[in-house]
Write a structure and sequence with these properties.
By secondary structure, the chain is α/β, with parallel strands linked by helices. Helix content is 32%, strand content 23%. The chain contains 17 helices and 22 strands. The chain has a nine-stranded parallel sheet with strand order 10-12-4-5-6-7-8-9-11. Strands 13-16-17-22-20-21 form a six-stranded antiparallel sheet. Strands 14-15-18-19 form a four-stranded antiparallel sheet.
Length: 562
């Protein structure tokens, strides 16, 4: 026995020896709408793996090197309940530990998704022992009058468990607590910086669950906690939610139908409260083991083709019910949009609400959107879905390389309101107010075309489409972002940092244009700004590249006053 104990002690010592000294550093935390990692502001820029990739460490082995070559710093990985707890009470940590080990080798950070009871408004990741016991774990019941996205006639049904089941909550919470307890034990240098609690929750094919458990909840009084929150935050509520509450006279008590009505909008509020309460129970219990930042992500709605709750997941953290989620789930640090629609600016504005820190866990390969989120909405992170499909020489990889080392410059400017995003969707000029200047931003190629035409020269031909951002068999093409985009940061003393591609910026105070004093090319690394060429003459006409993402620092001569 003594020999066995000695061997165990030596093994533990060997394991601790390979963990970096950062193990004593503080937990990641969200404070003042910024993500702090190792006590410093951190931008979680990276990508989310395909749903099943992380279930196989062998499958992932070549992917880790590719992600490093793409300058991905933060990987959104997954933990599947069916693999994590294949038999009730028996937990398998291998896939989790493999992700932590590979991230540690490459000095990457992880965001882990808990694929528990709910994933995309279904329960496909719940383990077999749970799904097969419908008496203990009842299913949700839908009227089924609405069409469902991402299926076809004759398709086998997806299991949908009822969020009203206390046994389901108990089992999901037990497994989630086991995960967080394990992270507390093994992830001592905090490779994992955030955790997503389930995925795109809500209900499809109906605006509410019609099971017996749900019917009893529908007829019960609205919890005072929700009504008190609505009253206390009335002036800042989402207008859609305020309209549903006000049409019934903003009642301070009553059943769900008394307070909100009986249509799909009222039922969405009802489902939102119960889904959010479920996630609150998981998050609160998990944080008692390890207090990492936690969030819930949302399938967008309403949107084109999905105007009613039930066509998009009813009860998920969609824009109409964000305030309900804030009331029910205070242990969630943020509510995050999954962006697959083209109206990114509108979506980001919707979720930049009621001091909600903005993190985008899933999005398309559209690089310009990242710059807009950083500059206009102080995002703490942005993640492209299917990141392993990306090209190491693609535009996204180029953007991550350019932004590497800029955490402190960007986050400090975000906190102090000295940053603006550039994203020219329609080609029209925009005016940005920053650092006492009015900055007119225009597409460089449009200006060049006009200048050539003005002197009787032929305009250049339109540029060819950008190559796809993705590669490999079975991947969907994702053309590079042809829009002009970037960031402008006021550094004080008439100096600005400009990062991006395809735009020209002219600085003025009032009606007087400033004169350019000095322009430096450069880039950031872990030591700060590294100066490259000093641009002058004709090369000042277009200081931001048109064919790639670049960074410049521009010093201005302030216009003289009369």
């Amino acid at each position: 026995m003594r020999d066995t104990l000695c061997r165990l002690a030596l093994s533990a010592t060997a394991i601790l020896a390979v963990i970096p000294a950062a193990s004593a550093q503080q937990l990641p935390v969200i404070r003042d709408n910024q993500l702090l990692v190792d006590g410093k502001p951190y931008l979680a820029l990276g990508g989310e793996l395909h749903n099943s990739s992380a279930s196989s460490p062998e499958y992932m082995q070549p992917i880790w090197d590719k992600l490093q070559a793409m300058h991905v710093r933060t990987v959104v990985g997954t933990v599947s309940w069916e693999d994590f707890e294949p038999k009730e009470g028996q937990f398998d940590f291998r896939a989790v530990d493999a992700q932590i080990a590979e991230a540690r080798k490459r000095d990457m950070r992880l965001v882990l998704i808990w694929f528990g009871a709910f994933k995309n408004a279904a329960s496909t990741y719940a383990p077999s022992w749970l799904r097969s016991n419908e008496r203990r774990f009842p299913r949700a019941i839908a009227q089924g009058t609405m069409s469902e996205a991402f299926t076809y006639k004759g398709a086998m049904p997806k299991p949908v468990l009822s969020v009203f089941s206390p046994e389901l909550l108990k089992a999901d919470r037990t497994a989630f607590v086991a995960l967080m307890r394990h992270l507390a034990e093994v992830d001592t240098d905090h490779r994992v910086i955030m955790v997503q609690v389930n995925n795109e929750t809500g209900m499809l094919r109906d605006s509410r669950d019609r099971s017996a458990l749900a019917e009893r909840a529908w007829k019960a009084p609205v919890p005072p906690q929700l009504l008190q929150y609505l009253a206390a935050h009335r002036s800042g509520l989402k207008p859609e939610l305020d309209a549903v509450w006000s049409r019934q006279g903003r009642r301070a008590s009553g059943t769900w139908s008394d307070v909100f009505g009986t249509d799909w909008q009222a039922e969405e509020v009802f489902m939102a409260w119960h889904f959010a309460s479920y996630m609150e129970a998981l998050a609160a219990a998990g944080k008692r083991e390890l207090a990492l930042p936690m969030y819930a992500n949302g399938w967008l709605g309403p949107q084109d083709g999905q105007p009613l709750a039930g066509q998009y997941p009813s009860g998920g953290p969609a824009k109409r019910v964000l305030d309900v989620w804030r009331a029910a789930a205070p242990s969630l640090d943020m509510l995050s949009p999954d962006i697959y629609a083209p109206n990114t600016k509108e979506v980001l504005a919707d979720y930049d609400h009621a001091s909600n820190p903005l993190f985008v866990p899933e999005a398309q390969f559209r690089t310009g959107d990242i710059f807009w989120a950083l500059g206009q909405h102080r995002t703490i992170g942005y993640s492209v879905f299917g990141i392993e499909d990306g090209r190491t020489d693609g535009q996204l990889a180029q953007a991550y390389a350019e932004l590497f080392g800029m955490d402190q410059a960007i986050t400090k400017a975000q906190a102090e309101g000295r940053i603006a995003g550039v994203l020219l969707d329609d080609g029209k000029p925009v005016v940005i107010k920053l650092g006492g200047y009015s900055i007119t931003v225009q597409e460089t190629m449009a200006l060049l075309k006009q200048m050539l035409l003005d002197v009787g020269l032929q305009a250049p031909p339109p540029p060819p489409p950008l190559p796809s951002e993705t590669e490999g068999p079975g991947t969907r093409p994702a053309p590079g972002d042809g829009r002009a985009f970037g960031l402008i940061i006021d550094e004080g003393h008439d100096t600005f940092l400009v990062v991006g591609k395809g735009f020209t910026a002219d600085f003025a105070i009032g009606s007087k244009l400033a004169e350019v004093d000095r322009v430096e090319e450069g880039r950031f690394d872990t030591q700060g700004w590294k100066v490259g060429r000093v641009l002058n003459g004709d090369e000042r006409l277009s200081i931001v590249p048109t064919d790639r993402i670049g960074a410049i620092r521009i010093k201005l001569m302030r216009p003289r006053s009369n």
